[in-house]
Design goal:
The strands form 2 sheets. The protein has a 4-stranded mixed beta sheet with strand order 3-4-6-5. The chain has a domain of 61 residues. The model has no long low-confidence stretch (mean pLDDT 97). Helix 1 links the parallel strand 1 and strand 2. It is an alpha/beta fold. The protein has 6 helices and 6 strands.
Amino acid sequence: MVLLHLTLGEGGNPKISAQAYGEQKRREALAAAKVIGAEVLFGPYQDGEIPNDEAARRYLADVIRQVKPAHIVTHWRKSIHKDHSNTHAIVGDAILLASLESVVTGHPRHRGVRAVCYAENWEDAEDFKPYLYVDVSDELAQWKECATQYQFVKGGVSSFPYLEYYEALARVRGAEAGKRYAVSFEVEPLAKKRVLDSLP
């Protein structure tokens, strides 16, 4: 598993400088990744400044070629946060660029991305409709340990109750899925296809 942070979100703490908070967020990201056994990559962009442009697409295409993911989890298309909506816009094109032999980056092409899933996020809620549900009942404790490596989740940065919100949301999605806890994802309309030999 690889976690790519295109920005550090360094502008998110009004109590300290962006530089200091960025350094803190980097340490927190590394600690969170260690809890779940993930590798971490950090992008070159500043908080609030992810561009929806060709350079960003090529940067991300090269990361995809380097990591060779089968699945990508990213932001939904509509968001109150500019970085989230721009990330959504560049991901699809970056997957295409990563697959093309004619596109030259630092790594050979990768054509193995099987699915792109959009995570549920309170900032990306507009038109988000849960489609895929994944049972996380056995992983909830590990998720909480991972998430609470971040000060903004534990409290003291924002008044938004992140930990309580997402734990409650996981319980709601779990109830909908017939599980104790679950998380939901949206997918592109063309991916919403089931092929069966007969009605279930």
